[in-house]
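Review box. Two proteins, two foldings.
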Amino acid sequence: MKAITVGERELREAVTMKEAIDAVRRGFVDLAGGEFEMPTRTALRDGQFLVMSAHHRSTASAMFKTLSVNFERKPAITGTVVWSETGRLDHLVADAGAVTALRTGAVVGVATDLLAPPDAGRLTLIGAGGQAPDQVRAVHAVRPLRQLTVVDADRSRAQALIGALEPELPGVELLTATDAVSAVRRAEIVCCATNATSPLFPESALPAQVHVNAIGAYRPTMRELPDELLASSTVVVDELDAVLEESGEIIHALEAGAITKDALTELGTALTAPTAEYGKRTVFKSVGVAVQDWAIARLLADKFLA
């Protein structure tokens, strides 16, 4: 019996964004079908330490992730993802920061593919931190981009991200901005990847038809979206129990009476619904759940433990 260790470089070489999106999509379908035992994650010190786990019944496999989060350091996320399966003696240990970035991008790819207009190609990304590159890659994988605007209070960070992504985005118009309100006015897709504690823009700043992904706020004290946007949109969430406990946007909107629990649709349900009709504005809110990590860990296990 041995442990196979997979670092960020090995993960990036082994798993494409398309593979990650497909794997996470299958994971959420299985979640909706009752295939997972998945406790709500344990959060300590207001989310600075997180513990997540998921057991996939039909494959008798399990994933356990422990990590620490500190936005004052680089990388902000450190920790380990451990994969084990009753049919295999060996187990896999992967870098939690790399897995988290990839799986967070992948779930946005799944939601964007489901909810964004088929011809959407103008993306505004708010936040140029560690999660940002995979947000762009995931959206581009399902909705080929014509234009990308990266918004960050520190324009040099936005420019650095644009420079890093440019080789992957030939023919895409690449822009930077410091003002989120003006940057979202002509967006067809918006991705929010910040640690904000108050809304990044008012609902009135958005066009009539737009899809918004919000993945940055993962604690009740954090919030990227205004109540009015949630009230006027079709809202899909990664997992109901998770967002009711951890999402500042959802908790605030419910307490304000802007939305009700009945207005929230889980991603797995939305993927398996035979006929889904969505309005002109759609929102995907994710706090991150263990099925996403399980999906990436299973891909790695199939590649490295075969």
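Next protein.
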Amino acid sequence: MHKRELILFDLDGTLIDTAPDMAAALNDLLAAEGHDPLPFADIRPHVSHGAAGLLRVGFGDHGDTADSGRLRTSFLDRYQANLAGASRPFPGIAELLQRIEDEGRAWGVVTNKPGWLTEPLLRLLGLDTRAAVIVSGDTLAQRKPDPAPLLYACSQTGHAPAQTVYVGDAERDVAAGIAAGMDTFVALYGYLGPEDHPHEWGASALLEHPDDLWPHLSRPASTVEVP
């Protein structure tokens, strides 16, 4: 039996509510391209899919054409200019992180967001120096759903996968966590859309609120063999 000593979080839709700023960047780009803005409710479920997913929402098939590179650059420039305008930790996250630290445990971030966006965002929110490890989408050659970023986070902090849990709000997060051999939880408060069926992803549990994670951390974890 292993105590859960390292808690890893996805970033967008799990640790930080970045949807307001990402939606603002998309609508600003739509306006610049002569399109009508989209309702926030239509954009929010797609934020975890990054720039590519948001461009598909905003521009449809046009977002996947040869012009997509220009649109992606323009979107990311707009987003980078206002990374933390309205982005904040989800309600309950600040208290959860403090409790993890007070217990002498460690927490970190594993995200597919590139480092040039991840690290400034965490710094602006005062979380960068508190995280035991930050693994971005360009830290390694592999990204989630590959388990390599999660295993790398474990190696950097000296924790075994069986001592680690991962929390995310996308199916690829659960797939990566399971493949890494760690208990994995779905943040239902994140950016899930009607096409998502998290109860079918094989997660250890579904979390309605960050507080729901704590009872699971308080119980020893069974040893899981890494494939």
